[in-house]
Amino acid sequence: MTAVQPGAPSAAPIRIPPPLDPSFRPAGRARRALEERIRASGRGVAVTLAVEQPGGTVSRHATVAWPDGHPEAERSHHHAGRLLKTLLWARGGNRVHLDGPDGLVAYLRRHYAEEATGIFDARIAAEIYLRPLELVRTPQAEMPPTRGSTVALGGHLEGCRIGFDLGASDRKVAAVIDGEIVFSEEVPWDPAKHADPQWHHDGIDDSLRRAAAHLPRVDAIGGSAAGAYVDNQVRVASLFRSVPRDLFAARVRGLFDELRRAWGGVPFVVVNDGEVTALAGSMMAGAGAFLGIALGSSEAAGYVTRERTLTTWLDELAFTPVDDAPGAPTDEWSGDRGCGVQYLSQQAVGRLLGPAGIEVDPDASLPERLVHLQALTAAGDQRAAAVYATIGTYLGYALLDYREFYDIEHLLLLGRVMTGTGGDVIIERAGAVLRAEDPAAAEAITVHTPSEREKRHGQAVAAASLPALA
Questions:
Q1: Which of 164, 173, 219, 254 is exposed most, by the fewest CB atoms within 10 A?
Q2: Which domain range does residue 225 map to?
Q3: Residue 20 per-residue DSSP state
Q4: 124 and 159, same domain (yes or no)
């Protein structure tokens, strides 16, 4: 296959460039610029992509491509492929319906069958939905319509509940009575290094028992963790990365059902941590159309609809394209370039210190690098401010892309990268991007940043509120 260089040379320069990354090319903006040029030519071919989940949820998106034989056909293939990648990670599904030029359909099929980055996406989709990724040529007349699916989870505060959150470095738990926290605790752990599923089971159960000791009874348990969870099953999660595949299938996938049975079958719900973050923000603000983004060790995201319900979407924005520059940094998991995790997380901090002229011990961890950056920021170091301004620029342009896939009126920003005055710089810079590129978007989105108490207690209460009482 001929390599296609990304980027959109016909697009106008971005109005607010990131100070430390002059080659940055917002991915969605590049695609939309090409779409405009194709439509203006009168030679474009309509393209429809529809991603379907096993439960029937369908996310459908229309674009255009150059016809087969056009000198720039492969460029339009590239951009349609990046759009499909966004749909697979933001919405999720295992069956892709395609309608478009023969060359485009062939390009996408080769990508997911033969290229490393496409194979990775296909493998993860298969692990999440327990069936292989299919790319189906579907005529426009037979294309399934968009079908949403929401989940009535959260907002249940009555009774005696336990809420927990499983992170990469600690596990949090809270005991909640009628919406009021009566006990909370954080316990350090390092789950990614442990291969024995029983170790994970015992650690989680220990936290639950610590919380239960402060309740007269346990009516329900709700939790959050990084990864993809379907019907309470662990499908893909970095917390269990060291567990062998056979043990993962035998013990980890049904871990929370096992715990539910051990706790007498009480209502027990576990979802992605980004979803609980968004739910917590929605509950605090009393509003829907709510996107939550945590800039932490990765980029975690979740969404609450205008009707204040969760969806069956994946919302794994860490893997969606943000940058279309040819030299964009590579994601360590997928091997793909320009994905959100490298722009809106501690990984962005780590790679921007060098361009900013900030020296750190090469053996320093990402959290240690962030602490060093925060200390420089507190001292008024302008090099540190440039790092945060660059991340804020990334965020502003990413939001312009996210608005194409999410109805956003409220945005919750949290995570260690947002801590301190650097977080204020990120918000200010992202707002400047929105005002310069799309004033209506800047006016439409209200940004929320939680207090320390809300971050600790809001997440716990939201997690505990997930299950409805039987």
A1: 254
A2: 151-276
A3: T
A4: no
